[in-house]
Design brief:
Layout (H helix, E strand, L loop, with lengths): L10 E5 L5 H11 L4 E5 L3 H7 L14 H8 L4 E4 L2 H6 L3 E4 L19 H13 L3 E6 L7 H10 L7 E6 L9 H6 L4 E5 L2 H12 L7 E4 L1 H32 L3 H9 L20 H14 L3 H28 L8 E5 L14 H11 L3 E5 L5 H18 L3 H4 L3 E4 L3 H4 L5 E4 L11 H7 L5 E4 L6 H4 L5 E4 L6
Helix pairs in contact: 1-3, 5-6, 9-11, 9-12, 11-12, 12-13
Bound molecules: uridine-5'-diphosphate-xylopyranose and adenosine-5'-diphosphate (ADP).
């Protein structure tokens, strides 16, 4: 029998227990105690970690997350590998699986790899019963909902029916819980008004209806891509200005303050840095570019491509500056990398600028001492190993990075012994209060600190014999 479309939602499943699925479902469970929320994943290790009694072992590090998981887990929040059973009696299934950029075949280097989303849609088609609302949560190329609808619609079981909804996630890692608890907006795109309202009902438990935007499917999908493209564009813009500041003697922090005080521009998201990382910006820009090319919009594609190119250029220019300041060679030189995560307050390293910059230094023969409070040695190794697979569009070969060597260091001060330079790449709070006087005694002379995040205190460091390079700050 087909479930009533107006039925009260009592059970939600989410396929994909990653950086998006885990925190999003934890907050829904926390805010809606009457709804049973099950987060599903094929990765047994990941599910085991979500169920771990040691809350510091959760697979995702996010401020505030462990407290929420502690409150709801085992009550109305569950993590499981039993995918089919849980899909079968769910009113809503969120799809929150990985959608990385394709590395081979048609659209390689630009289009998203939809194999995981397709697999999920097939699984939902097979395992569901009655009426199921299927919600796209992962960032997806425009018109993916159509693919999902086609797969679901090809189910020959007449007792099943589906509505497809796009409900993109706008959380930023590091502030995910805050963003989920108090979002600027919730976007729900779809064709069936009843299903849209059923999804909206969930959010209305803690979010004002005025913040819930209803659109058609395609507007919702395109809004997610373009929101990320606009944000990424701001970072490439400010990083381009930082480079001009370094040449002219202007100060990027003063320029950011001056331009950001114009309410039309706004003061958020204009902090210069080593370049944007994270799983979304580059992937979404490449998706947008692919879409533009597909529709013959060459100039529009080139416009967005320049945002990606500027970002790569910015990452490479940081490593070039380091090489130049250290007399043009890094062979046998010890360099401390402060931060490997793509931003502070996350253990995520996907597309982190630290990967490209470290790789460039390894090619030059550097000995890297890598520190990060939340990133493991295995994760760094995995990122360096990935280079081989990505080489078809990045022209990087693993042999090249073997010119140098790297090790993860847990005690920051140990990393500085005999080091020639340190590069601040992630804005972890602890890097802003380092004891530079102590460090200057540990480093080899002449010693350098390269601050790409503007967090090192110039007044303190200028009292030592360390040379300081700061992003976006030119010679006086
Ligand atoms: C982003 C979007 O913000 C979020 O809405 C979307 O859902 C997913 O993608 P995220 O990638 O998690 O979130 O982090 P974000 O805070 O946007 O930072 C992305 C990158 O830009 C980081 O590498 C960060 O260090 C960099 N950044 C951000 C800057 O260099 N300067 C800034 O002013 C802001
Ligand atoms: P995101 O940042 O979008 O959350 P992640 O890579 O952190 O991406 O998480 C995606 C999760 O989806 C991974 O844990 C992966 O194992 C899971 N996943 C991928 N395909 C499937 C599938 N068919 N069934 C269940 N889980 C899946």
């Amino acid at each position: 029998m087909i479930k009533s479309l107006k039925k009260r939602i009592t059970k939600i499943s989410c396929i994909g227990a990653g950086y998006v699925g885990g925190p999003t479902m934890a907050v829904i469970a926390d805010q809606c105690p009457h709804i049973k929320v099950v987060v599903l994943d094929i990765n047994e290790q990941r599910i085991k970690a979500w169920n771990s009694d040691n809350y510091d072992k959760l697979p995702v590090f996010e401020p505030g997350l462990k407290e929420i998981v502690l409150r709801s887990r085992g009550k109305n929040l569950f993590f499981s590998t039993e995918i089919n059973n849980n899909i079968a009696d769910s009113d809503i299934v969120f799809l929150s699986v990985n959608t990385p950029t394709k590395l081979s075949g048609v659209g390689s280097g630009h289009a998203s790899d939809l194999r995981w989303i397709e697999k999920c849609a097939r699984q939902v088609a097979l395992a569901s019963s009655g009426h199921t609302i299927v919600v796209e949560k992962s960032t997806l190329p425009v018109r993916t909902a159509q693919t999902i609808k086609t797969i679901l619609g090809s189910s020959s079981n007449k007792k099943k029916s589906f509505s497809v909804i796009s409900n993109p996630e706008f959380l930023a890692e590091g502030s995910a819980i805050k963003d989920l608890q108090n979002p600027d907006r919730v976007l729900i795109g779809g064709e069936d008004p009843v299903s849209i309202e059923q999804v909206a009902d969930i959010y209305r438990h803690w979010i004002d209806d005025k913040k819930i935007i209803r659109t058609n499917l395609w507007s919702s999908e395109l809004s997610k891509l373009t929101a990320n493209a606009f944000l990424a564009q701001r970072i490439s813009s400010i990083n381009s200005v930082a480079a001009i500041c370094e040449e002219t003697g202007a100060n990027i922090n003063e320029v950011s303050l001056a331009i950001g005080s114009d309410t039309r521009i706004g003061n958020k998201f204009i902090k210069s840095g080593p370049g944007f990382g994270g799983s979304c910006f580059k992937k979404d820009l490449l998706n947008l570019i692919y879409l533009c090319k597909y529709f013959g919009l060459k100039e529009v594609a080139n416009y967005w491509l320049s945002v990606v190119s500027l970002n790569s250029w910015n990452q490479n220019r940081i490593s070039e500056i380091v090489v130049n300041k250290l007399f043009g060679t890094l062979a046998e030189k010890k360099i401390v990398i402060l931060g490997f995560a793509f931003k502070a307050n996350t253990n995520d390293t996907r597309e982190s600028s630290a990967i490209t910059i470290s790789k460039n230094l390894l090619i030059e023969g550097a000995k890297l001492k890598i520190h990060d409070p939340k990133v493991s040695s295995d994760q760094i190794k995995a990122e360096f190993n990935l280079i081989d697979n990505k080489s078809n569009y990045q022209n990087i070969y693993k042999e090249d990075i073997n010119n140098g060597s790297w090790e993860k260091i847990d005690n920051i001060y140990d990393a500085f012994i005999d080091a020639d330079a340190a590069i601040v790449l992630t804005e972890w709070e602890e890097y802003s209060s380092l004891d530079w006087e102590k460090i200057s005694k540990l480093m080899r002379k002449p010693s350098w600190v390269f601050d790409t995040r503007s967090i090192v205190n110039n007044n303190i460091i200028s009292k030592t014999d360390i040379n300081l390079w700061r992003i976006g700050i030119g010679p006086n």
